[in-house]
Amino acid sequence: MFLLRPRVYFLVGLLLMLSTLSVVAQQVRFAGRVTEAKSGKAVPFASVFVPGSSQGTTADENGRFTLTVAQPVDSLGASALGLTPLKKAVGTQPTQTVNFALGGGGGFTLGEVTIRPPGEVENPAYRILRLVQAHKNENNKRSLNTYDFDSYNRLQVFLANMPRDPEEGSLFQQIQDVADSLGALSDTTSGRVALPIFASEAISRFYVQSQPRLTREEIRHTQMHGLAPREGSVLSQIMGTSFQDWDFYRNWQQLLGKDFISPIADGWKFTYEYELQDSVFLGADYCYRIAVEPRRPADLAFTGLIWINAETYALRRVDLKVSPSVNLNFADNIVVQQDMVASSAGPGLPRRTHVELGVKPLKKSPAFRAEFTTINSDFVVNQERPAEFYNLPIETLASAYETPPGFWEENRPDTLTAREQGTFATLDSVQRLPEVRTVLDIMDIAVNGYYRAGKLDLGPVLSTYAFNSIEGHRFQLGFRTTPAISRNWLLRTYLAYGTRDGRFKYGAQISRILDRRTWTVATVERRHDIEQIALLDNAYALENPLFEASARLGNIRSSRPLLRELSSVSLQSDLFRGFTQKVILRHQQFRPLYPFAYYTDVPAPGAPTEDNFTLSEVVVESRYARDQVLVQSQTQNRRYSIGLMRWPVFTLRYTVGLNNVLGSDFKYQKLNFLVTQSVKLGQLGRTDYILDAGYIPSTVPYPLLKNHLGNQTPFYNAGAYNLMRYFEFVSDKYVALKLENHLDGFLINSVPLLRKLNWRLLVTGNVLYGGISRANRAINPTENQFGEPLPTFQALGRAPYAELGYGVENIFRVVRVDFIHRLTYRDSPGARNFGAKVSFQFKL
């Protein structure tokens, strides 16, 4: 017995070993990475498969994959959207490393044969999409009360399609020499290169409250390289997550100001074609892989792949591309890839998002290419915070620009490729070139209108010179202080002189920032300059250098100019997020520079008249913008509104005129209510509307009433009534509605011959109800004391003023033509009942 036992052990051991060897011999494990042949960068979410079988897997966001097959195979294949599929021969070793370098030029083609289970008559993907809709609310991150996470964002911008040999000594040639030496150039095989010009990184903590939707981002670390704006500028503060919210659970995904319909939108079946391609594991999640393609190639929709979790029917991954057939200007090669991870409460949150897009001004010109990478981690859900926590949507910590050596290498959540490392090194070297600083200064002037000289901003540059019918040659010099002098005080001033009128004009404004979190600002202003009646309330509030300059050009007598002397004190503050309260005390003196008079006592011929007037006013303004994102510029001590708003913006202004106060001539009241919004109408495009209502229950000269803005130029003006003459109608009570509906590709996309033109239809409409009291009619004489006629106006009758327009935009990508019909007051003297107006615009 004891002699047999070793033999038994031996036989059992031999059998176990043979069975193990049998299993090992039959199983083969492949591992590797899928990259792009030209650039060497990873191809996220690529498909790796055994040709001619159902065996396969999907690479992760870094292009890495593992695949175990039950028995030896002779080849392995890899494919990805927009790249040429590749097959490789493999051996029989149990463990093998197989890397794929996919070349460009591959197209994405949906299968021509649809295989359905016996007896099933519909597309099998439809059943999955219906279940996605049924579980949409529970999988949507917006069902979470709150969620927050750490976010890393990287942006790289390249100048693509550059010639291989740029002009000798040029800035591009200097940058290319540096990039070439550091291995940061790409696309060299085509004879043209992609030149790195800008890169940024940011680490932040992002907080979201779903109902009502409020967000807050704390940018904790940030750095910029290359052709970068100054630290603390608005651009430097929007590199975080706030503007990378890719959410395909929403019906519409806003991209470059356009609305693209999501592949899992409520109306999915009317926009997309679907093909169920495979069932694969993504990590531990078993998923359906479905190909999507727009039914109409020119629609604002995506093509590519989506992965749906087979258990929860949640969106697990997307690899989408905007079709080249989409009617977009200047933009191409748009790719969106996103990987989702389930939160502890169930709904998925974006773990990694990668976006690529190109902007090409002209067909044969160099193009800009941008690559965005966002990696999120450390998710926390349903941790309630008070509403005041979200009052400041974006906050850049004072220490964000101060990072110790090696910080990014230690805290970056992914690894830079060799090309990316070369890009950052190139841009750090390029930033020291004098020519680069010159380019940045020019860009700064174009954006802000001022030239930075030490601790002062000189300008506005565009207002330095103008020529008009009142002043002749107008020369102006001005400046404003920067935070380098003070973070809490801001001085803005200018001095101007006209050679024809021989007058000096000036303006000075001093602001004190009392509280940055609520943006509480006190301002004192003194101004002596020529203004125009229709633009009296704009002044500094517009903060638009181009407008300020153009308003002083040409024949300004027709717009009834006045010499205005203004003194004002104002205080504004955000009472809570989105709600801004402002109070203004101002004193104004007006001296019209055109024939004008008003009765000072009894409004009757021969009664005393005056042509100058003085006002003392109190103005109270409340503004509510629910989802407006305001960013404070640390380089200019100002804040800017960033991004599109989906909710309407309400503004209520109440003005009281104080009689006999500091020489004021009138006692009056004004009430104005304004609503603006941009509304998405699905397939019908987007409508922008302005609802404007006002009431003046007082007797005052017509410069103080509502002078509805006409347009006698051949150019279309969205803010005017385009077939109304200047000062044709004046009101003391009115309601106005302005509409512009941009149909984008609606209708035209369905007509093959028109679709090639890439034109877009639009419809406009203006309706104005208004009236004027007898007292306000009578206070303005029709003749002066010498019997000479004075410029006058008319009031609307019972019928509204209405005009309806239609037109075509995107002609040659920049031209817009509007055809407008005047529907009412067609028999008025000098009325134009039909007109064609042209305008130029740059829209994607």
Description of the molecule:
With 844 residues, the chain is mainly beta. Helix 4 (171-181) packs across helix 7. The chain is elongated, with a radius of gyration of 33 Å. Residues 1-25, 106-114, 232-240 and 538-547 have low confidence and may be disordered.
- Give the overall form: elongated
Q: Could you give a short account of the major beta sheet?
A: 18 strands, antiparallel
Number of strands: 45
Structural class: mainly beta
Please give the alpha-carbon distance between the first and last residues. 89 Å
In DSSP terms, counting alpha (H) and pi (I) runs of 4 or more, how many helices?
11
Mean pLDDT: 81
Q: Strand portion, in percent?
A: 35-45%
Rounded Rg: 33 Å
Please mark out the parts with pLDDT under 50 across 5 or more consecutive residues, or reply none. Answer: 1-25, 106-114, 232-240, 538-547
Helix content: 10-25%
Question: What would a concise description of this structure say?
Answer:
By secondary structure, the chain is mainly beta.
Provide key terms for this protein.
12% helix; 18-stranded antiparallel sheet; mainly beta; 11 helices; 844 residues; single chain
Topology overview:
Blueprint: H1 4-26, E1 28-36, E2 47-49, E3 56-58, E4 64-69, E5 75-79, E6 86-89, E7 95-97, E8 100-102, H2 124-134, H3 136-139, E9 146-163, H4 171-181, E10 192-209, E11 214-226, E12 252-255, E13 258-261, H5 268-271, E14 272-282, E15 285-294, E16 302-309, E17 315-322, E18 331-342, E19 348-359, E20 367-381, E21 394-396, H6 407-411, H7 418-430, H8 434-448, E22 451-453, E23 456-458, E24 465-468, E25 472-481, E26 489-498, E27 504-515, E28 520-532, H9 545-550, E29 561-576, E30 579-592, E31 598-599, E32 609-610, E33 613-625, E34 629-633, E35 638-642, E36 649-657, E37 668-680, E38 686-695, E39 706-707, E40 730-731, E41 733-744, H10 752-755, E42 760-771, H11 774-778, E43 801-811, E44 815-822, E45 834-840
